[in-house]
Amino acid sequence: MDLQCYHLEAVETALFGFVGHVVYPEGEIVLPLTLGSQDLKKTVMNSFTVVDSPSSFNIILGRPAMNELRAVVSTYHQKIKFPVGARVGEFRGDQPSSRKCYVEAVWVDQIKTKRKGKKASMDEVGGRVVEKGEVHFVAKEEQEMIEVEPGQQIWVARDLSASTRELTWISPLMSEHQLNILLGSHPVKQKKRHFGPEKDKVTDEQVKELLNAGHIWEIQFLTWLSNVVLVPKSTEKSRMCVDFRDLNKACPKDHHPLPKID
């Protein structure tokens, strides 16, 4: 901010929960805070606690600043209103910035539960480092339900363009599944199993059906590799499954599993 003429006052009190862990401030500084625009603006002197920690927030206004401004906050309208003489000033927020800050808080909660005493970066989620642009979150009140096919509905963001709404599949740029792997887990590649000519023939046929239907596709340079398993059905045919035991061991257990959904 190029504030050479200002000096930080020493602070010994630590902050808790700012970005998911203890933060020791660099100091405190008193700066003029101005809200509003043009002739409808108000300036007050406000004390700020300076911290050296990555966050989506530039500043956080506390209750003392709100009281000094005599401000009224509406999270629904994303506005702050305050008196300026006999008139009312206004400060507007925007949904992209609010969503970014909310996602930042969600990351912190996820990392805090995964850390358990281990050092982890702010952007390390599910065992891999993700770019901040990869995560897309839309609050429930910003969604609406549309019908993509007869009898099939889905929740989407209200601000989606018309061309995006007409998509019959979800682009990875919009939403992408990722494995929730425990930190420190190493990928396992199972050795190829042979089940005999008859079972191998059944496996090849079912794989070809999935390929032709577009449900699966071939990839190279695998990190996890699991064999298929044929399970006999009551119709004397076989159902092809996948042996995910090694992968399941590397994933955290769900404390609230689904009930019997049948």
Rough outline? elongated
Strand order of the largest sheet: 3-4-5
Instruction: Tell how many strands the DSSP assignment holds.
Output: 11
Overall pLDDT: 78
Q: What percent of residues are in strands?
A: 15-25%
Structural class: alpha+beta
Low-confidence stretches: 116-135
Counting structural domains, the number is 3
* SSE order, one letter for each helix or strand: EEHEEEHEEEEHHEEH
Task: Please count the helical segments.
Answer: 5
Distance between the termini: 60 Å
Task: Summarize the amount of helix as a percent range.
Answer: 10-25%
Indicate the multimeric state.
Answer: single chain
Main sheet specs: 3 strands, antiparallel
Tell me the radius of gyration: 27 Å
